[in-house]
């Protein structure tokens, strides 16, 4: 059960092409946003779809695979862990962000269409 302590698995579509960063250390970093949809029916029978956006980051070999094969609109399954961090804006404001640190990515068959 220890592997489930911080485990996230999402299936969704990329909102835009991944942003690729080549760091001074020689490592590669990829960032992208992933949309997941939830469908439900209201009491009155109206069907509703809601969309949540998730920020995803990937490093190293996983980042290289994403850079090479994944583009805007592709459906993927991402497995990783949640990570919280903070940063300071140019104006000196502190901001907080939650990201999925991607450890594995699978392109679904729907991605090939």
From TrEMBL:
This protein's name: Single-stranded DNA-binding protein
Gene Ontology annotations for the cellular component aspect, listed alphabetically: nucleoid
Entry's Gene Ontology BP terms: DNA replication
UniProt subunit comment: Homotetramer.
SUPFAM superfamilies cross-referenced by the UniProt entry: Nucleic acid-binding proteins
Keyword RNA-binding attached: no
GO MF terms, alphabetically ordered: single-stranded DNA binding
Record key words, sorted: DNA-binding
HAMAP family according to UniProt: SSB
Record-linked InterPro entries: NA-bd_OB-fold, Primosome_PriB/ssb, ssDNA-bd
Species this chain originates from: Psychroflexus halocasei
């Amino acid at each position: 059960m220890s592997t489930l302590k911080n485990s996230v698995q999402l299936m969704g579509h990329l909102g835009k092409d991944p942003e690729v960063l080549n760091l001074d250390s020689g490592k590669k970093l990829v960032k992208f946003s992933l949309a997941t949809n939830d469908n439900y029916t209201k009491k009155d029978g109206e069907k509703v779809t809601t969309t949540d956006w998730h920020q995803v980051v990937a490093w190293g070999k996983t980042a290289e695979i994403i850079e090479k094969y994944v583009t805007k609109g592709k459906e993927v399954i991402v497995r990783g862990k949640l990570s919280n961090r903070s940063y300071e804006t140019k104006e000196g404001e502190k901001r907080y962000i939650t990201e999925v640190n991607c450890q594995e990515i699978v392109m679904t068959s729907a991605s090939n269409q």
